[in-house]
What we know:
With 114 residues, this protein is mainly alpha-helical. The chain has six helices and two strands. It has a two-stranded antiparallel ribbon with strand order 1-2.
Amino acid sequence: MDILYRKRRATAAEVMEALTDPPTNATIRTLLRILEAKGHVRHEKDAARFIYFPTMHPEKATRSAIRHLIQTFFDGSPARAVTALLDAGDFKLSADDAARLRTLIKENQEGRQE
């Protein structure tokens, strides 16, 4: 999906070329068919080639994936997800990131009180 979002439109061969360690051509085509069956991509026929493109705006897809991740791994708790991310130790928050998080938390709390 990342490749399709970057390129906006791509054939299976172009998707494969963009991967650093690509699976087989058949695997790429199968994954694209699965993504199409799930409604994440569509295709147009251009002569003998299928050109695939995403059906959802990247921001909307990101929100949907994050909601699914939080539901699946953190029992629906955004606080548990953020805590796990910060506890991982692999990431260091910059002062700007910390300020942004404080602002978002405050706005979220204020929005619920109204």
